[in-house]
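Render this sequence as a predicted structure.
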Amino acid sequence: QTRKPTIREVAEAANVSPTTVSIVLNGSSAGGDRISPETQQRVLDSVAELGYVPNQSARSLRRQKTDRICLFFNAIGIPYNDIMAQELENAADQHGYSMILVIGGSAKQEHRVLDQLMRGLADGVIAVGINYLTNEEISQLAATGCAVVVSDNYLTPSGVDLIQTTEGEASFMAMQYLYN
């Protein structure tokens, strides 16, 4: 496996500072207008020549942002969940986010995912049909700064956006209608 080129190597090849490379690659408006088109092209040529790809982990650490949304289901293969996943993926993409899908399904799996989210796996999470996490655990996740949306009729954690449906009530009304 070959070693990946660093931002410093790109800077040396383009005869600029690593900061200049960062500004060019990130399209930063802060200082970007002070970099001549020729210098920008030199940086881009060096990036292409060396095959430089920014390290997403380092970038996330520096920016304190992952540009990632986590969709946390208890199961896949359920038509409602599949449609929701596709629609959320489309919405995330339109706003410059990538979406990762994680599956719970057991207490061990849900707590593993919770631990990863607490450590910054994503900027936000949409949790649908989780079964083993408590209100307190979900509230602790929200307290870390992770944006949390929970779709559940029984959980009521604090510090999160909560989506509740009227499935039970609607089913009862349908049965009443059919019975009468």
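Summary. Residues 77 and 83 are 10 Å apart (CA to CA). The two ends are 71 Å apart (CA to CA).
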